């Protein structure tokens, strides 16, 4: 579904149980492939793609995080949403399904664009979601002050601190001047704490 940290019902729920009891999306073990007509996500049939097991706690935890971000951003019917960092399209699809918004989502990956587009088509949401192969710094001029909402999920880590001012400047440029809302989910840690944690430690703040 997504690379990003999930939200489990219980603290450290993802660490409970042995590795043998964990589903195919827990680190990719047991990745399966399915034929045409099998279920990928709720109500979405996609040929020859990995299985999302709806019995897997990770599936529900990922969906819980996506829905939390949708609620946090207060996305409403008729809103135009800008997403920087498409992932595999899971946020855009769920946002449109739940709210009736429209989404322009940006990625630098051809593979992500193609798979996200395939999933959007399978969900019948081509009129609501456009997956752009685009650097966020190259948004077209007509996007100035065009968006009601902005979402970015675990993408800003790749921006680099020397480009953060440019990044936020572009976001500000794209959002409407009144009433716009943005939600960014990022892996980070407080600067003074860096020496106390192993470099691989992740703390997701939403």
Helix content, binned percent: 10-25%
Radius of gyration using CA atoms only? 18 Å
Shape: globular
Percentage of residues in DSSP E strands:
15-25%
If classified by CATH, what would the architecture of the domain at 65-205 be? 3-Layer(aba) Sandwich
* SS class: alpha/beta
Mean pLDDT: 77
Counted by DSSP, the helix tally is: 4
Q: What is the fold-level CATH name, i.e. the topology of the domain at 65-205?
A: Rossmann fold
Give your account of this protein's structure:
It is a single chain. This protein is an alpha/beta fold and about 210 residues long. The protein has a domain at about 65-205: 3-Layer(aba) Sandwich (Rossmann fold), CATH 3.40.50.150. The protein contains 4 helices and 8 strands, in the order ββαβαβαββαββ. The chain has helices at about 55-75, 90-100, 110-120, 165-175; strands at about 40, 45, 80-85, 100-105, 130-135, 150-155, 180-190, 205. It has a 6-stranded mixed β-sheet with strand order 5-4-3-6-7-8. Strand 6, helix 4 and strand 7 (about 180-190) form a beta-alpha-beta unit. Helix 1 packs across helix 2 (about 90-100). The chain is globular and about 45 Å long. The protein starts with about 40 loop residues before the first strand and ends with a strand. The model is unreliable at about 20-50 and about 195-205 (pLDDT under 50).
């Amino acid at each position: 579904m997504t690379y990003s940290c999930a939200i489990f019902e219980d603290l450290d729920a993802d660490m409970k149980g042995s590795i043998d009891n964990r589903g195919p999306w827990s680190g990719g073990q047991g990745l399966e492939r399915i034929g045409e007509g099998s279920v990928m996500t709720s109500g979405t049939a996609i040929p020859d793609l990995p299985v999302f097991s709806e019995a897997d706690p990770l599936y529900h935890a990922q969906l819980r995080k996506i829905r939390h971000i949708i609620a946090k951003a207060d996305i409403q019917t008729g809103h135009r949403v800008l997403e920087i960092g498409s992932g595999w399209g899971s946020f855009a699809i769920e946002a449109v399904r739940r709210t009736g918004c429209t989404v322009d989502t940006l990625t630098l990956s051809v593979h992500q664009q193609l798979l996200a587009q395939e999933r959007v088509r399978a969900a019948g949401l081509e009129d609501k979601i456009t997956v752009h192969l685009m650097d966020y710094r190259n948004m077209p001029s007509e996007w100035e002050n065009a968006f009601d909402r902005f979402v970015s999920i675990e993408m800003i880590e790749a921006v680099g601190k020397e480009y953060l001012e440019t990044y936020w400047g572009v976001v500000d440029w794209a959002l409407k001047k009144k009433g716009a809302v943005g939600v960014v989910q990022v892996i980070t840690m407080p600067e003074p704490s860096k020496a106390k944690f192993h470099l691989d430690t992740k703390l997701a703040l939403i």
